[in-house]
Amino acid sequence: MFDAKTTCVVVVGAQWGDEGKGKLVDVLAERAELVVRYQGGANAGHTVVIGDSQFILRQIPSGILHPNVTCIVGNGVVLDPETLFGELDQLAARGVDTAGRFFISDRAHLVLPYHKLLDAASEKSQKLGTTGRGIGPAYEDKYGRRGMRLTDLRRVECARAMLADRVGRANRLLEMMGSSERASLDQHVALLERLAPRLLPLTADTGVLVHRAVRSGRRVLLEGAQGALLDVDHGTYPFVTSSNTTAGGAAVGAGIGPTAIDGVLGVVKAYTTRVGNGPLPTEAEPPFGERLRELGGEFGAVTGRPRRCGWFDATVVRYAARVNGLTGLAVTKLDVLDSFAEVPICSAYRLDGESCAEMPAEVEALGRVQPIYEVHAGWQEPTGKARRLADLPAAARAYLDRLQTLIDVPVRYVSVGTRRDQIIEV
Ligand code: GDP
Fold first, then answer.
1. How far is the CA of 332 from the centre of ligand 1 (A)?
2. pTM of the entire predicted model
3. What pLDDT digit, counting tens, does each position of 367-396 carry?
4. What is the dihedral angle through the alpha carbons of 358, 353, 348, 292, rounded to the nearest 10 degrees?
5. 275 CB within 6 A, ligand 1
6. Contact assessment for residue 295 and residue 343, using Cβ atoms and an 8 Å cutoff
7. Distances (CA, A) of 210 to 24, 68, 71, 207
8. Max Cα separation, the chain?
9. What is the CA(18)–ligand 1 centre distance, in A?
10. Could you confirm whether 18 is annotated as catalytic?
11. In this structure, which residue's CA is closest to atom 11 in ligand 1?
């Protein structure tokens, strides 16, 4: 993706998340100097496998595994400090030194224990399938202009007063929601007093760091969490996350202008998965759904929840290509399809007897669409050793060609296994 003219690249998920962005960022980060996470919180775990080690990174960009890369958690992220320290400690225990190359925006908002209590209470009534990590309530506070940002920790007295107000409000809400849980002000104050000395040295005006890197032509990777169909504006609302996962959110959440971005790589699985509730038009019938789940290891990296699995949905990815302005596609997990005799692709939908080329806005309508499938012959050969397109079986190449034609975005990478080296650069 990087070349003389393309130095600032966004990597986005172009389905419902879990597309394997972590691996792509890991591969691309080798050539980058700065990797910035721009939205989301600690629910979206990236899994990166290096040798025999598996790293699950929830908030720290996976670029951190490259010793020469500086990593940033941007202003658009809601930060869970305890989880962050867990990740930093996990990295340190495995010999990954992060000193001097990991920074968090002083404008990023904090996820606090009261957010988690509110999340659990609202999930009982709203049933959106959230991960209960407080991310939604933290974004609600942000947009309600009562969030706590890292910069607030610089003034301890002020932070205490803010906490008293926020914890009181949270407890009133919990009571209204019929929850018996209550947040403790003392515990919140103690938590911040314990965390601030470790957090503040990592805190910086990261927008300036990213801006300077872009201006001086250094290679910058902006990394999103989740996928386009979970974007709060463009996703299957209300079964969405609470931030803009799409490429527009990358500029806002990294603290730079949109003109700084040169390219957008959309990561897609060679099939489709989603976690949580909401429609999934191409959900595969048994036993194919189970087989995709087993072969693809489709269980949430953080929650362990089984993912719902189905065939590639070109309507979804065409839409993602449009709302993200994708300039390239990375197709992951091609190897998961190796053993299937036939591989269907959903090329379009029918809705109420009419053809439907675009994603309907209403989740109820998306639940009613009928996928139109093209059935492609499977290749029934292992692809894990392929390192060039020419190494792939002809039927696998034909499958990728068809995806590229249906989406109208060039395939730039094909991933054929979990390992770092199992990738084809087209
Ligand atoms: P992310 O949040 O988009 O990074 O996705 P996850 O980390 O939740 O899921 C990606 C999972 O797929 C991880 O377990 C990866 O190791 C694995 N993975 C990534 N690319 C491939 C691939 O090409 N083939 C296979 N079999 N697994 C892959």
1. 7
2. 0.94
3. 999 999 999 999 999 999 999 999 999 999
4. 120
5. no
6. no
7. 20, 16, 10, 5
8. 66
9. 7
10. yes
11. 20
